[in-house]
Amino acid sequence: MEQHFDQINNPAVEPEREEKLPVSFPLLALRGLVVFPSMLLHFDVVREKSISALEAALAGNRRIFLAAQRDLAVEDPGLSDLYRVGVVAEVRQVLKMPDNSRRVLVEGLYRARICELLASKPHLMALVSEYPMGERKITPAREDAMLRILKKELEHYCSLVPKMPREMIEKMMTDEDASHLTEYVAGNLMLPMEAKQYLLEQSDPLIRMEDLIHALREESDVLALEQEIEGKVRDRMDDNQREYYLREQMKVISEELGEGEDPAEEALTYKMRILSLELPKESEEKLLSEVEKLGKMPGGSHEGSVIRNYLDTCLALPWNKSGKEVYDVKQAEKVLERDHYGLEKVKERILEFVAVRKFAPDLKGQIICLAGPPGVGKTSIARSLAEAVGRKYVRVSLGGVRDESEIRGHRKTYIGAMPGRIIDAIRQAGVNNPLILLDEIDKMGNDFKGDPSSAMLEVLDAEQNNSFRDHYIELPFDLSKVMFVTTANDVSAIPAPLYDRMEIVELSSYTREEKFRIAKQHLLRKQLKKHGLNAMRCRISDEALFSLIDFYVKEAGVRKLERTIASLCRKAAKKLATEETVRQIRIGAKDLEGYLGPKKYKEDTLPKEDRIGCVTGLAWTSVGGVTMEIEAASLPGDGKLSLTGSLGDVMKESAKTAISYVRQVADRYHIPADFYKTRDLHLHAPEGATPKDGPSAGVTFATALISELSGIPVRRDVAMTGDISLKGRVMAIGGLKEKAMAAYAMGIKTVIIPEDNLPDLQEVDEVVKSAVEFIPASQLETVLKYALVIPEEPLKKEKAEVPGSQPMMAAKSRPASKRPGA
């Protein structure tokens, strides 16, 4: 330990002041301390700037200016953070501690005031001037009276502080210098820092003594009140001991009489359990009042059993028990990749969520809703998220819930009352920070019993759920630590206020390639193990898996695919068990019909030739993308329009918009100008039993109509999707990833998409992008240029070019496999 000190020759004599004021001194900011003149004080110096100021004082004349800090939490105080009035002190002793801090002994010399802050680095330097006491004279009689009152208050104060040093009391009682006594008392007694600073800044000696007397009286009142409270607590402890003795006697008497369990003992047990939980005052008082009722009831009463059930439920809740959370992004990514194939956007959002929670673990209000068709992995994603962050996982199914009490619970006055599903999930988890999956939140209904979705508003609102009140427990429970994840198939069915509280993360349907990878890497292994088989005894080829996906299941997820694989495993197990000569089962694409029967779905194939009035469109469904052929027919008539194929209102409007556009460009494609008067038009989408709707068929309708009315064939290997405006502008659509996969599966070579959907191509599989050419179009002219097989004779040109497309060029009729204009 390094030590610096100097000899204190005569502490009673104030060192001579050689400085000419104002003078610059190193400034040391004190936290929670106020130094007075002639006062010796020990304190520790930890901050780098304070140590630097101390060393600067030791290198000079050992003088330093000490000023109190207004806010103790400020680590690097400036001039505005300090009181202007302080004390110039002399450093008497400095000890260097093992942790590199300093323990200092200083002696206050005289009051001073900061005139200007000269520097802030490497330590504070201030220009200070002496701040002398006022010149007000006090008559000897008045000074003597003030001294007597001050000593009387000191005597009362010292009687309330039993550990006051005797030497300090004697020095205060024998000191006859009013100014010196005031500073000595203020510096050595336990007064608030603000009161000490006020006394230091006060220059009027009379007001200074009056304020000190007032402060002593207030502090004495507080000390007297503390002693009174301690006495009451001590008396209450004595009463509790007496009560315990009497209850022990009652227990023995009950045992001797054979009365069995003592209600009073049971109530005491509940009371001890409640007190050990350290609940908020409101909750503790409520439970203790129930315990008091229980203690006064006969052992076998019905109401007593109701109270017991209530107390057991409340005490089973994890009020202050939290699980350990782990926010490791790499570990979370590892878990997600292990459990799920694909879903890159969803995984990325989950990892972002984990990363944010790592840096802001107390962040509230992040409630994720995983939305997508059935079987795409919403529930398993939530389970993997819980494993990744180390939280307990509890699933709450909300499908078909129509009663608000299912969420909030029933009043305990009803027979068979129980808490709601949220509190019950917390009880199952055993911690107050689990991950609760609210499954099928879009399936909640409502009836005369209430609206459960309204009850969910409080549960999912981070500003309200810190005091969620279940009707059964009737106590506020903090749900803000719970991580809520919801799932839904149709977000449009979620009420708007509830939808607004959640962040929607879309899970799209799996593509053909993704289903194959999931089946090969996860489902096949799982089902083989489940049925007691292995890869050596039962092998299913890749071609067979693709055939299962194409011809036996049509779904967005993989549930039916898994059931179909399970069916193959069962049949393979039966064959191995019944035919002793068979050692291994190999299932190829040609063998599927023998195991599963004929194909359930037909393969989409390209037309054999280019056709007039028939266009291949692309559509999105809940089970993925599909190709949809649109047929147009022009018949003699008086301008009637027929729309068939179970078309929805949006598709009907798209068809009417297409007709209006065709009328505008009829002359360009040699279409009679009065066709809408002399011809009946019929637009049809096959598979009429399947309802269809959406805006993305606009370009398909327009192309089919122009082809039918002009007699120009449409290329058989071109598919298209996009909405149109009256002026022929091609507008953006959704579901491009699924539509592109459907075109690839059918063998389409060219897909025309809206130019605004170019960024969506990033989500399309690389396999699809390498096999299919995507052509962006901002105007319908571009669509027609690539879709129609234009004859050699040039079409009538417009004088001005159409924005978003190149001028229409004459082209020969060419094979469908080659792109026009290449």
Instruction: State the major sheet.
Output: 7 strands, mixed
- The poorly predicted ranges are 1-20, 794-822
Mean pLDDT reading: 81
Number of helices: 26
**Straight-line distance between termini:** 87 Å
> Into which percent range does the helicity of residues fall?
40-55%
As a percent range, the share of strand residues is 15-25%
Biggest sheet, spatial arrangement of strands: 19-20-18-17-21-24-25
Kindly state the number of beta strands: 25
Broad shape: elongated
The radius of gyration over CA amounts to 43 Å
Content-based structural category: alpha/beta
Characterise the protein shown here.
There is one protein chain. The protein is 41% helix and 17% strand. It has 822 residues and is an alpha/beta fold. It has a seven-stranded mixed β-sheet. A hairpin with a 2-residue loop joins strand 17 and strand 18. Helix 8 (281-295) packs antiparallel against helix 9 (302-316) and helix 10 (329-339) packs antiparallel against helix 11.
Short description:
The termini are far apart.
Note the main attributes of this structure.
alpha/beta; 41% helix
Describe how the helices and strands are arranged.
Elements: E1 2-5, E2 23-30, E3 40-45, H1 48-59, E4 63-68, E5 85-96, E6 102-119, E7 124-130, H2 140-160, H3 166-174, H4 178-188, H5 193-201, H6 205-257, H7 263-277, H8 281-295, H9 302-316, H10 329-339, H11 344-359, E8 368-371, H12 378-389, E9 393-397, H13 405-408, H14 421-429, E10 435-439, H15 452-459, E11 468-469, E12 476-477, E13 483-488, H16 496-500, E14 503-506, H17 512-530, E15 538-540, H18 542-551, H19 559-578, E16 585-587, H20 592-596, E17 614-621, E18 624-636, E19 641-644, H21 649-665, H22 675-678, E20 679-684, H23 698-710, E21 718-720, E22 723-724, E23 730-731, H24 736-746, E24 750-754, H25 766-771, E25 773-777, H26 780-787
Parallel strand pairs: 2-4, 8-13, 8-14, 9-10, 10-13, 15-16, 17-21, 19-20, 21-24, 24-25
Antiparallel strand pairs: 1-5, 2-7, 3-6, 4-5, 5-6, 6-7, 11-12, 17-18, 18-20, 22-23
Helix pairs in contact: 2-6, 4-6, 7-8, 8-9, 10-11, 10-12, 17-18, 17-19, 21-23
